[in-house]
What does this fold into?
Amino acid sequence: MRQLTIALPKGRLLPTAIESFARIGVTLSGYSRDSRALVFSSDDGSCRFLIAKPMDVPTFVEYGAADLGVVGSDVLMEAEHDVLRPLDLRYGGCRIVLAAPQESADEPLALHTVHRVATKYPNITARYFAGRGLHVETIKLYGSVELAPSTELSSLIVDLVQTGVTLRENGLVVVDEIASTSAWLIANRASHKIRFAEVTDVIRQLTEATSCRS
Amino acid sequence: MQRDRQAQPERLAPRTPPGATDVMLGDAVRKFAIESALRRRFEAWGYAEVVPPIFERYETLLAGGIRPEWVYRFTDPSGEVLALRPDLTTQVARVVATRLRNQPKPLRLFYSGNVVRLPKPGNGSRTEFSQAGIELVGCSKAIADAEVVAISIEALSQMEIDDFHIYLGQSSFFRGIAEETQLCDTEISEIKELLDRKDRQTLDRLLSRLDLTSEQRRMILACLDLCGRQEVLDRAYALAENPTSRAAVENLAEIYQVLEDCDLTERVLIDLAEVRGLDYYTGMMIEGFSQSLSVPILGGGRYDNLIGKFGYACPAVGCAFDVPRLAAISGKGSSLPRASAEVLVRMQASERKAAYEIATALRTEGRRVEMDVTGCDEAEALAYARQQGIAELISVEDSGTRRMDVTTREPRGGASCGS
It folds into this structure.
């Protein structure tokens, strides 16, 4: 039987993701942060892990290059991939917030003459403002979104916030919380059928491990 | 100089429209092989071909329940809205309701042709691809559903796809549960969406907010686990006590029994957790998967309300095969016949007649023969044949006809053929 392939997100969520699989007996001692390799086999040989950019994890899973994946729900909200979402892993909790410079934060949003919103999440941003009848110009950035207001690139930002320290240090305050996010287990549609027993077994074990923790 | 440039006709850099592909060479051979294998199987079961037009009135397709987001629309000069067909089932239903309505039933029909769909997430970027399928019209018995399943299994086995499974669902099973809860349509579609994503936690939270008994909650959550071998039918029967769901399980059990009698259940699984297509199908739902592909290779089911939308109430069941996906996985590793010729015939200009006769004689024997049109000499012909993978060269000159093996350059037997 082919190994079960699992895509994990590079970065913030990776250590916890590896740990959560270790807790159900799928250990990955071959992984090291410094390695350039992107594919690792679990110690028991049952699973193969791919390390991908968070935004790419659902793509690997949707097209069946991976059977399962771990990804932040912010990514799932931003790009509507056709993947199954069997389990909220409840770690890596963050918030997607609308933030503004301290001095303009008190102006009501509806009356605010919104020119531009800088964000890594143009779709989430567009949906949020459309739902409030506001027209905005979204500017897509790939990082350091907090720079946008101070450089007058935009008057607002929509960004993922963990502690809020970065916002504060850049003179920004939260105007509204759009969503709270966490890591999710996702699955390929066909794999969930073709390898039903294996896939549901992993889901069940992770579910048990997740509820033990909380 | 300036004038010269203006005289040049403007060159167009050719670009294909997004999603459009040219199927050619080996892919075209494989596509044709799949289509003919399916055609043979359909005909062997007594199905007759229908060839509908590539476009339809948009309203016809819409009435048939196609997804508007799939459809390329355009208007003809009179302002009529037309559309390229996203599937052929709706068209076959229209044909049955009009030209075939007075024919004795059941009718066994098949089709093979291209469908056109706007690219959308989850459907990949394919805009046009080949589909072949069957429709068994005018019979609502389980044995008719089983026939469609049996043909699917036979067709896939015949194509030497040895890692496939057929998943059978029943749309009335969840419908029965949904009706029993007496929830509103919005709530039901929220539940369906979460069942579809297999999102147990969010579903559980939603269900505890809704006006449901704990028994109903448990029942809906348990739907997520209804995938597996025959025993799923027993679990499903015990789970849902409402008459609609029970009838659905009994119907699926009967279909399964027919297949078992024919010794065809080895590759059949039951999937009552599948909620896609619930609004379209009225009974059995069928999906086929191969281990080597992460997308379905066939799909279909029973749609007893479709033909009635065109004014003639008539039950029907059918399924469609995804030809390019089958072509991608079938007979992997086995060598397929090349599309190009096996023999190249070149001749001196004066020997055209003799060369033509030699080529005709070989073609009558069933060999694929290419005639040189460039007027090249023997050495050039050899080089060309080697490049094209043509095994044999026949060179016709007034001094005589020579037959040679392209790789070894050795003369072949029957050098005097035709002359």
Chain B touches chain A at residues 121-122, 165, 167, 197-202, 225, 227-228, 269, 271, 287, 289, 291, 293-296 (CB under 8 Å).
